[in-house]
Amino acid sequence: MYRYCTIESLQTNQNAGTGRCHNIVIRVAYPLRMRRIAIIPIVLVLVASQLLTAPSNDIQFIFTSDVHYGITRSSFRGLENVDAHTVNAAMVGEINELAHSSFPADGGLRSALPVGPVDFIAVGGDIANREEAAAGEAIQSAATSWSQFQLDYASRLDLIDRTGNRLPLYVIPGNHDASNAVGHYKPMLPLIDKTSMVGIFNLMMAPSTPKSASTYEYARDKVRVAHDIGGVHFMFITLWPDTGTRSWMESELLQVDSSTPVIVFAHDPPDSDSKHFINPNGRHDINEIDKFENLLSDVFADDSGGARSVDVTPLAEQKDLELFLRQHPNVTGYFHGHNNWNQFYDWTGPNNSVVLHTFRVDSPMKGHFSAADETKLSFQIATISGASRLMTVREVLWNADPNHPDAPVAWGASTTVALAPRPVH
C-alpha cells in the first residue's frame, strides 16, 4: 500500500469572491477507496517556503471553454438577449486586465503577488454552437462564429508572455464543433458546416497545406498535439482520450521522461459522455432514435439489460482510461469543459486506482450556474512552479460586479496540487 499526498487550499466559502480564509491541508489519497485528510506541520513549513517565493521558472496559463458563438445570454450587464460575440469580447477585455492585477492572499503559488506574464491561453472547445434549426431558422453559421472568435481571441487578446511576445492561443474542438462537421440527429441548417473544425485544425496542427472545407475529414484530421513548456508536457486532444487518441498519447509519452508532469486539455470530462461514442446499434449511424453522435473513435461498449443507449454510463470506456493512467503515472492533470461550471476535483476511475487532478471550467454562454447568475461567470488561471512542481489553479470571477464593468476581477475558489508522478504499486 502507498500514500499519495496532494496539497490543496480549502476555502470556507466557495461562492465568496474575496475576504475568505484558506487553510493549507494535505489530502492523502489512498487507492482502493481509502481517503483521509491529515495536517502535517513539517510538510506545511516546507510548502509555505515555496509558495511564498516567485521563481522565474513559473508557468502560467488561462483556461476557458464552451464560448458558443451563435447563441445569446438572456441578460448581461443590464442588457437582454446579448449575443456571444459581445459577451466573449467582454471576457477577453477582463483577461487583458489581469496583467494589472494581483493574486489573492490565498496561500497558493504567487499568493498576493502581481499576476505577471502568462505563457498561453487555452480554449476547451465549442467555439461554434451546433447549427440546429429552430422554427425553420438556423443558428448562425460556423463560418460566422469562427470569424467572431478570431476577432475576439486572436486579435483583441493582448496579454504578453515572459519573452514579451503575444501569448499563444491553443484551441481544441468541442462536440458542437465536431457535430457541425459530421452532422447530427437534430435538423441542422446547413446539414454540414466544417468551418470551425477546419479553423481549429489549421491553428493547432499547422499543416504545410492548410485544410479547407473540401479537404478536411473529421475521422482522419484530429487535433492531437503537444507542447513542452517550462518542464511540463501539455497535450491538446479532440474531445476525449479514446482508443485512437490514447494510441497517439502512448507514442508521444515514449519521448517524454517519466518524471515530467503531463497535463491534458480535452473537451469532455474523464467520465466522458456516452452519446459521443459511435452508435453500437443497427447501421451504427447518427439517427434520432439512438441519439449517438459518432464523435469518438470507439463503438459504445456498455449495455444495461442488453440495451446500449446514450443513457447508460460508459463504465468500460472509463476503465480503459483508468488503466491507461495507471500505466502512465506522470499524467497528473486534466482540464476540460462541456459541463459548464467551475470545479476542482480528483478523478479516481471506476476502480479508484488513480488520482487525476481535474479542473472543470465555466462557460460564458451556457454556465450551469452563471447562465442564471452572471456574477458567477468565471475562467481559470493556473500557476505552476517548475522548482516544486506544485500547481495552483484559481477561479477568476470576471463579472462579479455587472453594474461596474471596470471594477477589478474578483477571486473565487482556488486549489494547489502536486504534479509529481503518482507512485506505482
Brief digest:
With 425 residues, this protein is of the alpha/beta class. It has helices spanning 41-51, 84-97, 142-155, 175-182, 195-205, 243-253, 315-327, and strands at residues 4-11, 22-29, 35-38, 59-64, 72-76, 79-83, 120-123, 133-134, 137-138, 169-171, 224-229, 232-237, 262-265, 331-336, 343-347, 356-360, 378-384, 390-397, 410-418.
Describe the structure.
The radius of gyration is 21 Å and the shape is globular. The termini are close together. α2 packs parallel to α3. The chain has a 6-stranded mixed β-sheet. The chain has helices spanning 41-51, 84-97, 142-155, 175-182, 195-205, 243-253, 315-327, and strands at 4-11, 22-29, 35-38, 59-64, 72-76, 79-83, 120-123, 133-134, 137-138, 169-171, 224-229, 232-237, 262-265, 331-336, 343-347, 356-360, 378-384, 390-397, 410-418. The protein contains 7 helices and 19 strands. The chain has one domain (4-273, 314-418): Metallo-dependent phosphatases (Purple Acid Phosphatase, chain A, domain 2, 4-Layer Sandwich). With 425 residues, the chain is of the alpha/beta class.
Describe this protein with a few key phrases.
6-stranded mixed β-sheet; alpha/beta; about 425 residues; 7 helices; Purple Acid Phosphatase, chain A, domain 2
